[in-house]
Specification:
- Helices cover 6% and strands 35% of the residues.
- It is globular, with a radius of gyration of 23 Å.
- The chain has two domains: 69-261 and 270-277, Sandwich (Jelly Rolls), CATH 2.60.120.10; 280-416, Jelly Rolls.
- With 436 residues, it is mostly beta strands.
- The strands form six sheets. A nine-stranded antiparallel beta sheet has the order 1-16-20-13-10-15-8-7-28. A six-stranded antiparallel beta sheet has the order 6-25-24-27-22-21, with no helix packed on it.
Length: 436
């Protein structure tokens, strides 16, 4: 496999990268005088005494340390919400939203955020926030940078390419790729296509990992080598800019006289990365019945007890459908896990009758019934069963062990579909006739 020279391959690896030869110290992390007059700074994403397998930290060698800034002050009111999610009561009703529109006014990534739902407690490292973004202006144009102290960000582009400039280097991503930016890492997002739209999962809990494979064995699902981490790239700019921080559920801002992306070299295992969803090796049935969505898990944020995830990031990619005497689309179901679903492109095989389009989303909370719409059920119940390649699109889910509470803005949005449940399942007929 060919790897772009702007990235390093592997999940959770100890990486080392320098933009200037000799910038990385040898044999120690914090020499008395680092090369090039750089400052040594460590960023840790786990408790200091976490086991080696889960310990997250990187050493950064930068032109100015992160302490150089005026005091932060509260930022202007935005559409971003955070824990506690208690604006409106959670509902057992099924919810679905149409895609949000690209703004008509100049709007960068930060101002283009809209919180849809969330749960847990960012203060105690549990739960998640779910946001949509829609923007038409690069942060390079607004001279803004951002970091999130509340959790790591899983960004799922749906429309438009993203150029993500981070402290560790540059990540270029397009729809069907995802980007993960760890808690506290500074970044800015530019829009090569002029506008962009997508989804964000803000993970307050344990950092995402790739799931164990268990009986699957060594191969399947997401392969570690396909996760790409950027190489060192720095900005040596002494110009005014704004740094926005999300801390304790609120946005804060400060003014800088230099770019905060001034890391010349770094090493460690705490870094942003991207992954191409088309590299996912789908495991599916070849005999009968429809397996649980856990077989489509790309990343998981584990929690206790084992097997009850804080978050699972699950995709439904193009794949072969092979099963005899089996209802092929997702069956009707009620789950302990709450499900937020989005569509990157194409048509979801459980909602072929329409209403769930790319950029849209749905929320089915704990034990709320859901499944294929009436038209899809009728078609799938009567179709000729033979192996076929389902290439209609790619959908995803953020699943959580916690009930998801929608925000007031989401419930009052013009994009909320009124009567979604009745329109989707109201036409399901009674088929029972008492005969075998």
């Amino acid at each position: 496999m060919s790897i772009d020279t702007n990235y390093m391959s592997g999940f959770g690896n100890e990486f080392a990268s320098e933009a200037l030869e000799g910038a990385l110290p040898q044999g120690q992390n914090s020499p008395q005088k680092p090369a090039y007059g750089l400052y040594a700074e460590q960023v840790t994403g786990s408790a200091f005494t976490a086991p080696r397998s889960t310990n997250k930290r990187s050493w950064l060698y930068r032109i100015r340390p992160s302490v150089v800034h005026p005091p932060f002050e509260p930022a202007k009111k935005t559409s971003v919400r955070s824990t506690p999610f208690n604006e409106v009561p959670p509902t057992p009703n099924q919810l679905r939203w149409d895609p949000v529109k690209i703004p008509s006014k100049p709007t960068d990534f930060i101002d283009g955020l809209l919180t849809i739902a969330g749960n847990g407690d960012s203060y105690s490292w549990s739960g998640l926030g779910i946001h949509l973004y829609a923007a038409n202006k690069s942060m390079n144009d607004t001279k803004r940078y951002f970091y999130n102290a509340d959790g790591e960000l899983l960004i799922v582009p749906q429309q438009g390419a993203l150029k993500v400039r981070t402290e560790m280097g540059i990540i270029d991503a397009v729809p069907k790729e995802i980007i993960v930016i760890p808690r506290g890492i500074k970044f800015a997002i530019d829009l090569p296509d002029g506008q962009a739209r997508g989804y964000i999962c803000e993970n307050y809990g344990q950092p995402f990992v790739i799931p164990d494979l268990g009986p699957i064995g060594a191969n399947g699902l997401a392969n570690p080598r396909d996760f790409l981490t950027p190489v060192a790239a720095y900005e040596d700019e002494d110009k005014g800019c704004e740094l926005v921080a999300k801390f304790a559920g609120k946005l804060w801002r400060t003014a800088l006289n230099h770019s905060p992306l001034n890391v010349v070299a770094w090493h460690g295992n705490y870094a942003p990365y991207k992954y191409n969803l088309e590299h996912f090796n789908t495991i599916n049935t070849v005999s009968f019945d429809h397996p649980d969505p856990s077989i489509f898990t790309v990343l998981t944020s584990p929690s206790s007890p084992a097997g009850t995830a804080n978050i699972d990031f699950v995709i439904f990619p193009p794949r072969w459908m092979v099963a005899k005497d089996t209802f092929r689309p997702p069956y009707f179901h009620r789950n302990l896990m709450s499900e937020f679903m989005g569509m990157i492109d194409g048509v979801y095989d459980g909602k072929e009758s329409g209403g769930f389009s790319p950029g849209g989303c749905s929320l089915h909370n704990c034990m709320s019934g859901h499944g294929p719409d009436a038209g899809t059920f009728d078609k799938a119940s009567n179709m000729e069963l033979k192996p076929h390649y389902m290439d209609g699109g790619i959908a995803f889910m953020f699943e959580s062990r916690y009930i998801m509470c929608p925000t007031k803005a989401a419930m009052e949005s013009k994009h909320l579909q009124k009567g979604y449940g009745e329109a989707t399942w109201g036409d399901l007929p009674k088929l029972f006739d008492g005969k075998k």
